[in-house]
Amino acid sequence: MTLHPTIANVTDRIRERSRERRAAYLARIEAAAGRGPHRATLSCGNLAHGFAACSASDKSALRDGVAPNLGIVNAYNDMLSAHQPLERFPFLLKNAARSVGATAQVAGGVPAMCDGVTQGRSGMELSLFSREVIALSTAVALSHDMFDAALYLGVCDKIVPGLLIGALSFGHLPAIFVPAGPMTSGLPNDEKSRVRQRYAEGKATREELLEAEAQSYHGPGTCTFYGTANSNQMLMELMGLHLPGASFVNPDTVLRDALTAQAAKRAAAITALGDDYRPVGRIIDERAIVNGVVGLHATGGSTNHLLHLIAIAAAAGIDLRLEDFDDLSSVVPLLARVYPNGSADVNHFHAAGGLGFLIAELLDAGLLHGDVETIAGHGLARYRVEARVNDEREIEYVPAAGRSGDPSVLRPVADPFRADGGLRVLRGPLGTAAIKVSAVPEDRFVIEAPCRVFTEQQDVKKAFERGELDRDVVVVVRFQGPRANGMPELHQLTPTLSVLQKRGHRVALVTDGRMSGASGQVPAAIHVSPEAAAGGAIARLRDGDVVRVDARAGTLDVLVPDAEWKARETAVIDRSASHVGMGRELFEVFRNTAATAEAGGGIFMGGV
């Protein structure tokens, strides 16, 4: 199938503007690769330190230096359901490596925090910056120069992007991402949402809410809604860093374990020691980045990836911008309805055909670059399959189903849920923002109403409880960007704003903070840039100003006379109280140097 002209044009545009940065990046990883297996250059003392604790057989292999040695970078902890299954993975990976004559060592660990635990808490202000810490930790883990390839064990929000940014700094090494899979389905999402809204209205008790949440988040594995964690898994498959079919297989199953073992075997096969060398810095090119953006639009994925994909691209010397997301969204149809953009969860999505079906549909429609390199081999067509396990517990692949198993969850390109990806970039006097409208009713695409300005999401809830928001209103929550307080997610706003909308009011949110993929049916202009703490225009707003959020025209306006608007002072608040406690004082250098949300919100964005 001929590549869609918009996909081709956007890719060419990215390639051209990235030419110098990408060339410098490739030269750097080429120089690193050219020195051969690095542990062979270590002194005897250095190398002895590197294998001192190994088994006798592994020690012998490492002394000889002719077999691949795989580094395992692990985000395991047993507090988080998504990462708890990773406890067993190093054992599985090491045994699998030995079975093909290779060795594997746990190179290091990286932190893994959960936005679901820290929502509305001080710890959430470390969340976005934890991505940078994970990237740094990955670099430390690989800095021993002992490895020919790396296996990355991580799942959730900032963990996978941080691991990939770190992996790209060692772009001469092959990289395979090894997912843990989603937990089995629990309380239906519609029921969970209903209880949350009843609690927001004071109609459900805390005990009822806790029971609903516990029935929803009930066991090992990734949360089953389609937020950033599951969007991560989709991206790794669309970008060719997972084994085909690996993303959404439940933990602690025969198939999951077989896929985990196969990842080690495949990593051993694609090092520079063999004849199928596949370094991650070559796999992640402009085409792979565009494929990731297309997958994000086609599945209604998390808006956090407006930050993460830009940062990932930069780490590979690629200049990805918001207008690229916007242009690609205009031609990529929405093929999936997974909560919060529907009632189904990722297990239903996977059962309906999952990524194998989706990739096949997008390839056949010319909406993906098929001629890419992946860890599985040349061509994304290798991913239009379903993974199964045979009686010998070996992976077998069968062609993806030719039709969706549930059209209420997953549809073909010829019959999409929407003709576009539902993402818009908004621009106007208030700055640049993003809005995800894949779940927003058509009659709410344009909201014009007086605004009410807040600096804390908790104050929105208090105003709601006092009845002050029971009207048409644009809720503005500012001083929530990277430089203000680390850009926390503001999910506590969702039930409150949803209640107001269900009451018939015309409601929108405008914020320089994050909302992930969970803003649902309420129009939310998020990631406003420049942020208030950097003197952005959002800091000029006053209660009662009429704000217009227009997802159709792509504008974010304030209807205040120009002379009055230009004469206004920019509000300044003292955020020092939120810069200490819960470890926040350690992140001052991150807040002071963070890029804008439009540029990925990170502290190292140069890529080279």
From TrEMBL:
It catalyses: 6-phospho-D-gluconate = 2-dehydro-3-deoxy-6-phospho-D-gluconate + H2O. It is an enzyme of class 4 (lyase). Binds 1 [4Fe-4S] cluster. GO terms for molecular function: phosphogluconate dehydratase activity. Residues 68-381 form the Dihydroxy-acid/6-phosphogluconate dehydratase N-terminal domain. [4Fe-4S] cluster binds at C156, C223. It holds the Pfam family ILV_EDD_C. Keywords: 4Fe-4S, Carbohydrate metabolism, Gluconate utilization, Iron, Iron-sulfur, Lyase, Metal-binding. Its cofactor is [4Fe-4S] cluster. Its EC number is 4.2.1.12. The keyword Ribosomal protein does not apply. Pathway: Carbohydrate metabolism; Entner-Doudoroff pathway. It comes from the Bacteria. Residues 409-600 form the Dihydroxy-acid/6-phosphogluconate dehydratase C-terminal domain. Catalyzes the dehydration of 6-phospho-D-gluconate to 2-dehydro-3-deoxy-6-phospho-D-gluconate. Belongs to the IlvD/Edd family. This is Phosphogluconate dehydratase.
